[in-house]
């Protein structure tokens, strides 16, 4: 293969998932037993001793008369939250943390940690204002509405510094605390909070918007740590398996990595199974085990059963894998079988994907055939392009944006090794005719893309 592993991962992640549409299959998980290799468990998990805080300095303190938190005092409950000034959900959560600090005053100590420079945090706290409440009609934590919430908050009092002064804010410029908590627990997103119980052990990890009920249970002594430990590990299983994959690849244990991929496929179901199969395909492509990658796509066919749409998607994924391996002849054959079934589907996005990859495969085949400088091959190339265009013309209801995308595909299908201007020009002309004359913006975008494709 020509592409390196990371390039393959990027290409396959976009191409395969685009075709698959993240559709679930009907396959159910099997009882496959334990994984074939020991998994790389998080260094910090539920029930483990909470690491001491090692921070660069304190920006705000709820009570300056109290000692700054370093070690956790027996009998005390703590929240250690990680955030950043550039993170809208983190900013939206500031009033909520303040409310929790007030509600549990004297029973819970709230500490918020940023790995940014102190002056960055100071400027942020002095430069904006936040809403005074985080009830159900206000902040919408952790969603796409968070940015809007922040904008609304900036029009109200009190200031962010006043809000954050209701709890302790620290900076962790060296990243020691971030490593000890976030990295060690395989936590990747912020805001993220850890609850430390009275015995100094980690009780809970999660989004701080869900802290209310957790803190109430921990303070009341009714929190079920063991039950949450199981839930936490289940949530982290994907990250645990990914970390194990990375370690196996780093150690050169490729066969063990493939065995682990097989276990993940066998133990998953629905969308998780589809994702596991695609990850296995990615792994095999990285290892340059193309025959096994192609064979793995047959698992999708088996999973599809009588589901025609799922079977079609499985075939489209197989075609993409063949193209990734530069097996264009086989890819064209796969595309041809797909074209026989495409009339069954009315989904415009599915037809878009079919035509996009069919046309791309045909053009790549044409480029390679013409590079052999055989007139017969050139003629066959022209027939392939004409067939692809006929397939496009036979479909109805495609949005004009598709034809712009098709022109961009033309651009990707050729390079300076072959003068295919005549075929590309003919293809562009045929595609352009499908765009309404009064759709000026689409015509302009199409012409721009086609010009790049035709240019020498």
Give your account of this protein's structure.
With 456 residues, the protein is of the alpha/beta class. The chain has 19 helices and six strands. The protein has a six-stranded mixed sheet with strand order 1-4-3-2-5-6, with helices on both faces. A hairpin with a 5-residue loop joins strand 5 and strand 6. The longest helix has 26 residues. The protein is extended. The N terminus is likely disordered.
Alpha-beta content class: alpha/beta
Q: Which residues form runs of ≥5 with pLDDT under 50?
A: 1-26, 131-142, 413-418
Radius of gyration: 28 Å
Quote the beta fraction: 5-15%
So what's the overall shape? extended
Q: How can the largest sheet be summarized?
A: 6 strands, mixed
**Could you give the distance between the termini?**
28 Å
Strand order of the largest sheet: 1-4-3-2-5-6
Q: How many helix segments? A: 19
Q: Average the pLDDT over all residues and give the rounded result.
A: 77
Number of strands: 6
What is the H/E string? HEEHHEHHHEHEEHHHHHHHHHHHH
Helix content: 55-70%
Blueprint (SSEs and pairs):
Layout: H1 5-20, E1 57-60, E2 77-83, H2 88-92, H3 94-103, E3 108-114, H4 118-127, H5 146-153, H6 160-164, E4 168-171, H7 176-183, E5 192-196, E6 202-206, H8 211-220, H9 225-250, H10 254-267, H11 270-286, H12 290-304, H13 308-324, H14 328-341, H15 348-371, H16 375-394, H17 400-412, H18 421-432, H19 440-454
Parallel strand pairs: 2-3, 3-4
Antiparallel strand pairs: 1-4, 2-5, 5-6
Helix pairs in contact: 1-11, 1-13, 9-10, 10-11, 11-12, 12-13, 13-14, 14-15, 15-16, 15-17, 16-18, 17-18, 17-19, 18-19
């Amino acid at each position: 293969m020509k592409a390196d592993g990371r390039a393959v991962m990027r290409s396959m992640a976009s191409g395969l998932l685009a075709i698959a549409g993240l559709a679930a299959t009907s396959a159910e998980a099997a009882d496959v037993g334990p994984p074939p290799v020991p998994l790389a468990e998080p260094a910090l998990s539920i029930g483990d001793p909470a690491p001491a805080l090692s921070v660069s300095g304190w920006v705000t303190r709820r009570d300056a008369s109290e000692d700054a938190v370093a070690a956790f005092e027996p009998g005390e409950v703590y929240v250690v939250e990680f955030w950043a000034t550039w993170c809208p959900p983190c900013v939206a959560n500031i009033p909520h943390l303040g409310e929790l600090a007030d509600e549990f005053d004297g029973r819970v100590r709230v500490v918020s940690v940023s790995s940014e420079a102190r002056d960055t945090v100071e400027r942020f706290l002095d430069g904006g204002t936040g809403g005074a409440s985080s009830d159900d009609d206000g902040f919408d934590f952790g969603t796409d509405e968070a940015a809007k919430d922040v904008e609304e908050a900036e029009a109200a009092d009190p200031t962010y510094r006043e809000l954050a002064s209701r709890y302790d804010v620290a900076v962790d410029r060296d990243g020691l605390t971030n490593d000890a908590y976030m990295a060690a627990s395989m936590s990747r997103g912020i805001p993220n909070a850890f609850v430390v119980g009275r015995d100094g052990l980690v009780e809970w990890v999660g989004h701080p918007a869900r802290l209310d009920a957790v803190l109430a249970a921990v303070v009341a002594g009714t929190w079920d740590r063991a039950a949450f430990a199981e839930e936490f590990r289940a949530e982290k299983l994907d990250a645990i398996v990914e970390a194990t994959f990375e370690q196996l690849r780093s150690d050169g244990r490729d066969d063990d990595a493939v065995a682990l991929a097989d276990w993940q496929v066998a133990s998953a179901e629905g969308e998780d199974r589809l994702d596991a199969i695609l990850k296995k395909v990615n792994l095999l492509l990285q290892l340059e085990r193309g025959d096994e990658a192609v064979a793995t796509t047959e698992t999708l066919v088996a999973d599809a059963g009588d589901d025609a749409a799922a079977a079609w998607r499985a075939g489209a994924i197989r075609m993409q894998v063949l193209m990734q391996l530069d097996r264009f002849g086989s890819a064209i054959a796969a595309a041809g079988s797909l074209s026989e079934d495409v009339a069954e589907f009315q989904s415009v996005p599915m037809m878009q994907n079919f035509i996009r990859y069919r046309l791309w495969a045909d053009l790549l085949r044409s480029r390679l055939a013409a590079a052999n400088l055989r007139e017969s091959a050139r003629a066959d190339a022209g027939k392939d392009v004409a067939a692809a265009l006929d397939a496009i013309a036979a479909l109805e209801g495609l949005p004009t944006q598709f034809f712009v995308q098709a022109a961009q595909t033309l651009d990707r299908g050729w390079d300076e090794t072959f003068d295919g201007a005549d075929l590309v020009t003919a293809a562009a002309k045929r595609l352009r005719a499908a765009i309404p004359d009064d759709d000026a913006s689409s015509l302009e975008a199409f012409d721009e893309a086609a010009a790049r494709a035709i240019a020498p």
